DNA sequence: CTTATTACCTGTCTTTGT
DNA sequence: ATTCACAAAGACAGGTAA
């Protein structure tokens, strides 16, 4: 496997496009009062400027650098060209961000390679990248797993190649600080240090149960395996999106609820648009607030069915914002949607579609049984309509409840909901097809029609 | 002083299935 | 057909990390 990392990517693109910046310190990131550094060129790094540092601190460390806002469209374009070169080498490429990706060479039949073979492949790739990107350089790590490739790519930056021979993985890792392992950040490092663990060798000697007690079961068992270089994680291209969100830090803290409501509405619309563009919809709406002291709070609410409707997202976000304590004002507001489904809301019948289907004779509507509290009125396979959840069909009934699955023949199964048989919002019972035996009649007898 | 976006984990409650 | 107990699953909020 290869891990490819473009060197100081955003800054390098700016230097490529503006020759006067070459050889000079360049800092790309937020340029406002609350901006942070995305990328510093190697010239700027000499002054101690680092990613994630506040722009204010970077300015004091390196006042004569060029400070530029990011041009994501340009970076995306170069990224696409570089990723295409990788895919020419092997179809199995997993981008981690605009400037980073894993490549599984075995997926294109490149197996049984010597260290020299891999080095040659990496150098050829770097040449190809330089050619299609207008001179960008990359650092490449290679090894028998994602973990080793990722760590190796960091060892000889910029413009380096490091190949770790098969069989030497554990000894390669042993002398390194635990912080080199992806997933071990400041919090985990501190907990490990308290347990006397500083290097991977220390970690290799620790008891797994002890490790799990210190840092939790999921993290503990995966870290335990990574420490001995046991890493079977596959390279996965086309990973599925699991959430979509928008957030913004304000120049000054905001407290006015009317202002924040308008901002929330705009954010909800942007999220909805992005969901629609990606043909996604989701059930959970989350509002995020960051207080002046940087504490962060989230409030979320889950709908019965997925939506991509900006108005629905905005309405829920408004309510969540109302329930949020703004304290002395907030520095950040965010709106997101998660619990994504790959099928969209209009799989559920709208009122218009229902009426059209009805007049076309493909469905007939009958009155609810005269004793609506009698669950014998619902049979498996019957179609029903619920005021809030749309149209679905009866999955089962009993114990005073009727279970409805919302789906159509063409879609994956929708959510199953259980209602009390006397739920007034459970309105229409529909017999699909021609053999409905009750007298066909249009009727609704509940609220919410 | 401390971005934007996404993913994933955990503890605690609540809901739902059997 | 109804009730009860228990387990599994889901919802929520916060934390960690890249």
UniProtKB/TrEMBL annotation:
Q: Which cofactor does it need?
A: Mg(2+)
Q: Do you know which SUPFAM superfamilies this protein is assigned to?
A: DNA/RNA polymerases, Lesion bypass DNA polymerase (Y-family), little finger domain
Give the encoding gene's name: dinB
Q: Keywords of this protein's UniProt record, alphabetized?
A: Cytoplasm, DNA damage, DNA repair, DNA replication, DNA-binding, DNA-directed DNA polymerase, Magnesium, Metal-binding, Mutator protein, Nucleotidyltransferase, Transferase
> Where is this chain's protein located in or outside the cell?
Cytoplasm
Q: Does the keyword Heme apply?
A: no
Q: What task does this protein carry out?
A: Poorly processive, error-prone DNA polymerase involved in untargeted mutagenesis. Copies undamaged DNA at stalled replication forks, which arise in vivo from mismatched or misaligned primer ends. These misaligned primers can be extended by PolIV. Exhibits no 3'-5' exonuclease (proofreading) activity. May be involved in translesional synthesis, in conjunction with the beta clamp from PolIII.
The principal localisation class reads cytoplasm
Q: What reactions does this protein catalyze? A: DNA(n) + a 2'-deoxyribonucleoside 5'-triphosphate = DNA(n+1) + diphosphate
EC numbers for this chain = 2.7.7.7
NCBIfam families in the record, alphabetically? Answer: PRK02406.1, PRK03348.1
Q: Identify its protein family.
A: Belongs to the DNA polymerase type-Y family.
Q: What name does this protein carry?
A: DNA polymerase IV
Record's PROSITE patterns?
Answer: UMUC (PS50173)
**Extent of Basic and acidic residues compositional bias:** 370-391
Instruction: Spell out the catalytic residues.
Output: 100
Task: Show the segment(s) annotated as Disordered.
Answer: 369-391
Cite the position(s) of the site with description Substrate discrimination.
10
InterPro entries, A to Z: DNA/RNA_pol_sf (IPR043502), DNA_pol_Y-fam_lit_finger_sf (IPR036775), DNA_pol_Y-fam_little_finger (IPR017961), DNA_polymerase-Y (IPR050116), DNApol_IV (IPR022880), IMS_HHH_1 (IPR053848), Rev_trsase/Diguanyl_cyclase (IPR043128), UmuC (IPR001126)
**Record bears the keyword Nucleotidyltransferase:** yes
């Amino acid at each position: 496997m290869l891990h490819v990392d473009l060197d100081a990517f955003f800054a390098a693109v700016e230097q490529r496009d503006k020759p006067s910046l070459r050889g000079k310190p360049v800092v790309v990131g937020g340029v406002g009062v609350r901006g942070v550094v995305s990328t510093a060129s190697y010239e700027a790094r000499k002054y101690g400027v680092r990613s994630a540092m506040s722009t204010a601190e970077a300015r004091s460390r390196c006042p004569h650098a060029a400070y530029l806002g990011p041009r994501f469209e340009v970076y995306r374009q170069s990224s696409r060209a570089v990723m295409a070169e990788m895919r020419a080498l092997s179809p199995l490429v997993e981008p981690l961000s605009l400037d980073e990706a894993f490549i599984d060479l075995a997926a294109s039949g490149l197996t049984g390679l010597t260290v020299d073979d891999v080095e040659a492949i990496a150098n050829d790739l770097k040449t190809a990248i330089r050619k299609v990107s207008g001179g960008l350089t990359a650092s490449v790590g290679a090894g028998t797993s994602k973990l080793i490739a990722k760590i190796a790519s960091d060892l000889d930056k910029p413009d380096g190649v490091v190949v770790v021979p098969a069989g030497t993985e554990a000894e390669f890792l042993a002398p390194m600080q635990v912080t080199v392992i992806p997933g071990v950040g400041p919090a985990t490092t501190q907990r490990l240090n308290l347990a006397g663990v500083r290097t991977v060798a220390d970690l290799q000697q620790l008891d797994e149960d002890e490790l799990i007690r210190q840092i939790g079961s999921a993290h503990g068992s995966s870290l335990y395996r990574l420490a001995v270089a046991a890493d079977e994680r596959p390279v996965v291209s086309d990973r599925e999106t699991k959430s979509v969100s928008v957030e913004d830090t304000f120049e000054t803290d905001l407290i006015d609820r009317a202002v924040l409501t308008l901002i929330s509405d705009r954010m909800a619309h942007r999220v909805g648009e992005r969901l629609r563009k990606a043909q996604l919809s989701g059930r959970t709406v989350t509002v995020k607030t960051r207080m002046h002291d940087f504490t962060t709070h989230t409030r979320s609410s889950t709908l019965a069915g997925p939506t991509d409707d900006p108005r629905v997202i905005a309405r829920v976000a408004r309510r969540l914002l109302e329930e949020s304590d703004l304290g002395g004002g907030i520095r950040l507001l965010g709106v997101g949607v998660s619990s994504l489904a790959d099928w969209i809301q209009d799989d559920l019948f709208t009122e218009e579609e229902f009426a059209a289907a009805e007049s076309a004779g493909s469905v007939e509507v009958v009155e609810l049984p005269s004793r609506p509290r009698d669950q014998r009125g619902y049979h498996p396979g019957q179609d029903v309509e619920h005021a809030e959840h749309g149209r679905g069909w009866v999955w089962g009934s009993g114990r005073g409840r009727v279970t409805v699955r919302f789906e159509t023949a063409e879609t994956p199964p929708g959510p199953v909901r259980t209602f009390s048989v006397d739920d007034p919002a459970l309105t229409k019972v529909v017999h699909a097809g021609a053999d409905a035996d009750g007298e066909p009649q249009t009727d609704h007898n509940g609220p919410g029609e």
